[in-house]
Automatic annotation (TrEMBL):
Cofactor(s) this protein requires: a divalent metal cation
Domain of life: Eukaryota
Organism this protein belongs to: Linum tenue
GO annotations of cellular component type: nucleus
Domain DDE Tnp4, first and last residues per copy: 229-373
Localization of this protein: Nucleus
Protein name per Swiss-Prot or TrEMBL: DDE Tnp4 domain-containing protein
A GO term for molecular function: nuclease activity
Location, primary (coarse class): nucleus
PANTHER family: OS06G0164500 PROTEIN, PTHR22930
UniProt KW keywords: Hydrolase, Metal-binding, Nuclease, Nucleus, Signal
Length: 428
């Protein structure tokens, strides 16, 4: 039975990744809609045999999973003794009823609408069930497993409270919470993976229309979460203009600077080795400008990373005005990163010192980041639109001078050219 469940989980994971790819290929409100139906149909036709294969695989996975469920599952505690409640109620309705007792709404308990919860449960079902402890299977429905995990992330409630609410043991509550994070971070990390060139073109077009800055592929920022015991966890993320997370790196101790964290990441290495942000440059004011990110003063000025100008008393009035407009534009763009960070901090488990070991805390941050993007895709802005504020930019610009000899003229010339372009954009 264990091998059957693992096969089902594998097939489901492959299918889920294919469906996520289709969302990227056809990013309209529905996978079946497109602004250009004939073009979408032509583009999709070559994928149909592969889609059919994977959908058939998903049906097989569902069959294998269903045939393996010959055990009796733990049921949720009764929520009402009235005879009318004796009729069979769906697991989803029961999870909703138990989860929202004493809570304002379904969204307050699980951070999402009931329809998104049901969609997510269908996506994760075989994966949530495939790795129970060998000697003591939990015998819990996927709806209950997801409900427990989401309640932990959404509210930050302790395991004793969760166990009492959902009628399970504390060890089961702990397992389901960690298992949800493991499943998301292992099987769906591509939802926060750095985009391919085609998708980055769309990101840069959005920034261009909003700011006049061409070839910008994201905003980079770093924040820190506190663990019980005063240890901190540093998290670096890159976002687009809609606060969608394009890349996230967690797992660094919070005593490192933003620049040190950046240089320790695979993203930094990939960009330096031209494996990312490697599309053709654009010419701005006679200067070649490669694809780039923008960030706060805690980061160095690099050919692919632009930060605000520092003070320079010797510059002309016109040059100073251009730099001021560029700085104001970068600060405005960084609000999208601040909103994403604020949205993450609204997850209950991240809104307070995290009472977990470091590795589990990293998993919770990763899971909340993936779910952040899922909710943007499924439900729009929500908490992201409600938050306005600054990120953890604690730099003072000294890194620009520190790295001047290494990267000076190329980065400086490109930034000056972009400052002139911003000034032109604001005048138009």
């Amino acid at each position: 039975m264990e091998s059957t469940k693992k096969l089902a989980a594998l097939l489901c994971s492959l299918t889920s990744q294919l469906l996520a790819l289709l969302l990227l290929l056809f990013p309209s409100s529905s996978p079946h809609e497109s602004a250009n139906p004939s073009a979408a149909s032509a583009a999709a036709s070559s994928f149909l045999p592969l889609i059919h294969h994977f959908l058939s695989s998903q049906e097989i996975a569902a069959f294998l999973t269903a045939s393996s469920r010959k055990r009796k599952r733990t049921q949720l505690p009764d929520i009402d003794s009235h005879p009318a409640r004796d009729r069979r109620v769906s697991e989803l309705d029961r999870v909703a009823a138990v989860g929202t007792r004493g809570v304002d709404s379904f969204r307050s308990a699980f951070k999402m609408s009931s329809s998104t919860f049901e969609w997510l449960c269908g996506l994760l079902e075989p994966l949530l069930e495939c790795r129970d402890p060998i000697d003591s299977p939990l015998n819990l429905s996927p709806e209950l497993r997801l409900g427990i995990g989401m309640f932990r992330l959404a509210t930050g409630s302790g395991y004793a409270e969760i166990a009492n609410r959902f009628g399970v043991t504390e060890s089961a509550a702990r397992f389901c919470s960690k298992q949800l994070s493991r499943v998301l971070c292992t099987n769906f990390r591509f939802w926060v993976g750095f985009p391919p060139p085609e998708e980055l073109n769309s990101v840069s077009k959005d920034f261009l229309s909003l700011t006049g800055l061409p070839n910008c592929c994201g905003v980079i920022a770093c924040t820190r979460f506190t663990l019980v015991g005063h240890e901190t966890l540093a998290v670096q993320l890159v976002v687009d203009s809609n606060s969608r997370i394009l890349s996230i790196v967690a797992g660094f101790r919070g005593d490192k600077s933003d620049s040190q964290i950046l240089k320790s990441t695979t993203l930094y290495k990939d960009i330096e080795e031209r494996k990312a942000l490697n599309s053709s440059p654009v010419i701005v004011e006679g200067v070649a400008v490669n694809q780039y990110l923008v960030g706060g003063r805690g980061y160095p000025l690099l050919p692919w990373l632009f930060v605000p100008f520092g003070d320079d008393e010797d510059e002309s009035f016109e040059s100073r005005r251009e730099k001021e407009m560029f700085n104001a534009t970068v600060d405005w763009m960084r609000v999208s990163a601040a909103r994403a960070i604020g949205s993450l901090r609204k997850w209950g488990v991240l809104s307070m010192p995290i009472g977990e070991d470091f590795k589990t805390a990293v998993g919770f941050v990763g899971a909340c980041s993936i779910l952040h993007n899922v909710l943007l895709m499924r439900e729009g802005g929500g908490d992201v639109d409600d938050f306005i504020g600054g990120d953890d930019d604690n730099g003072n610009g000294h890194l620009i001078e520190e790295h001047w000899d290494l990267f000076g003229k190329q980065a400086a010339d490109a930034r000056l050219a972009l400052a002139k372009r911003v000034a032109q954009f604001k005048k138009s």
